[in-house]
Amino acid sequence: MSPKSSDETRIALQLELGKGTTLGRGTLNGFYKKISLGIQTDDDLVLFIEMSHYNIAFKNQKETGSISLGLALKTF
User: Fold this and answer.
1) What number of H helices and E strands is found in the chain?
2) Distance between CA atoms of 9 and 41, rounded to whole angstroms?
């Protein structure tokens, strides 16, 4: 979803919920959640922050998470 906030910019929002599995690592699988929020310019350049949470047990951790900052260029 990316509604216009002005004539030149959009607010980009993505929400994800799903189930993930690994290849070649045995039976590692579980649910994940992700949210991404960004600003898209008139030149289709997107600056975003993304937060992910994985409910996949690996070694001594029952769950993991990450926070990412990114820059993307929309080309289609």
Assistant:
1) 0, 4
2) 5
